[in-house]
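Q: Fold this one first, please.
A: Sequence and structure below.
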Amino acid sequence: QVRLADSGGGLVQAGGSLRLSCAASGRTFSSYAMGWFRQAPGQEREFVAAIRWKDTNTKYTDSVKGRFTISRDNAKNTMYLQMNSLKPEDTAVYYCAATNSASYSDLTQQYYYAYWGQGTQVTVSS
């Protein structure tokens, strides 16, 4: 059983930065990929970024490219999302998730993610 604990959200002004963390436990993750999704009020949950554990290949949604960086620390079994130049439209609950069934092209699809964190709120004020 995989357990994910995400943290690091908060309130920040536009242009500021936050770093989200997702601590994973319960399995070794060499065959997994992990990702971040977000859900704003009244909207559907959407893909933000993903990383493959074994080779650190990454994928981002267009709206965060150049501002967000996903990474992982193998020794700590922890994934991070460094968010810079935050905008009010980044306000959402952010969820980390893990999959061992998605191909690289499928990493944007939440259907493939079997394990989810509890979510952490990110609020960006204008």
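Q: Good. Now the second chain.
A: Here it is, same layout.
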Amino acid sequence: QVQLVESGGGLVQAGGSLRLSCVASGRTFSPYAMGWFRQAPGKEREFVAAIHWRAGSTYYTDSVKGRFTISRDNDKNTVYLQMNSLKPEDTAVYYCAQKRYYSGRPYYTQSHEYDYWGQGTQVTVSS
């Protein structure tokens, strides 16, 4: 089993920044990828960003490109999401997720493709 614990959410004004962290514990040998998703009230969970754990390559949904940066610290089993130039539409609960193994494609943006999830951290951006 893997446990994922997010932190770093909060209330920020539009244009501000936050950095989310997600620490993995338990079965912590190198996963294939780590991702961030978010879910706003009344909406489906959506992909935000992901990083290949070993290679470090990253990919993002279009709405956050140029504003958000995903990174990882292999030694600390931690993935980060640096969020800059935040907008009210970024308001959501942000979830960290882990995909354990490669399964045929280089990129994974669907929530059902991930194996473990954190409990989420609330990000609220005021206008």
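Q: Anything worth noting on the second one?
A: DSSP finds no helices and eleven strands in the chain.
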